[in-house]
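Each letter names a residue; the fold follows as tokens. Both lines appear below:
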Amino acid sequence: MILNNLKTITKVDKGLLLRHISGFAEQCQSAVDIAKACPNFSKPKKVQNIVILGMGASAIVGDLLKTLFINESPVPIIVNRNYDLPQFVNEKSLVFAVSYSGDTEETLTAFKEVLKRKSKVVAITSGGRLAFLANRQKVPIVKIPSGIPPRAAMGYLFFPMIVFLQKWNIIENQTLNILDTINAIQKLEEKYNSKKSTPGNRAKELAAKLHKKIPLIIGIENSTDVVALRWKCQLNENSKNLAFTQFYPELGHNEIEGWKGIGKFSKNLIALFLRRSDESEDSIHRIDVLKTFLKNHVSEIIDVKEQGSSGLTQIFSLCHLGDYVSFYLSVLNKVDPTPVS
């Protein structure tokens, strides 16, 4: 099998993306260490909402934060993918301005506006215009390493927010969950790395199933929906492979009717359900009903699930698997996963 040939993998991976994927556990730990080493940022007072400014991978980390803490955070968490800000953002808003490059136009425009509204702001970036403006305005900045494709820097972009939110007692202490997550990713690395052959390497096996197919990545609302979006984006950008995403239970209310007219095109489609181990019995039953319907309209249905003692661990384990799947699919598609137009 081509995925068991290390020379072929190296030949395709000209941009060395595999190096960043395989070092993800170390990146997550480094992100925590960088955030903890930052100067003592003053605790924001009377926070009424948390806003994450970002685009692409910098926005997805905000989505992950919202999903993981939607039932715990005492204040709403929103992700702003826009030049403009909602009217409610004010001096009582806690804002994370997240841009890996520091030059994301939408984020920079919104960042300037939150300064005018006197919001409490923390910038997370590797440099660029955002770092320059943050330093000039004396805005706290988490400076992360440069030279990484932004989509491969998810750990650096996400974990500083967790560190500060727990430090300021906005969320419960996540130290044990973070440690469990990093340990879980390290163990998954042993299973998914390029030297681990198939059969037995689930990431390579899933990539082989997706080869020459169009994946429909199905996430569970407020559970794995953001992971499904992450998988789709990674398959698009890394694998140069068309993919779609949809969310349960919304999928069962409208799009399900469209599947009835799919016809012969169904042989090109494969459905992946991204699952968590803490689903309710009712959800499990309803998803099974949906899968029974879909099996007549796609070539195959696959459940994808990772174990973990916390939502953080399960979510990041699923993301890590998706990163590897997208990389191995790029090898099968014979395209360097790093460059994007």
Q: What stands out?
A: The domain at 195-332 is CATH 3.40.50.10490 (Rossmann fold). The CA atoms of residues 99 and 247 lie 27 Å apart.
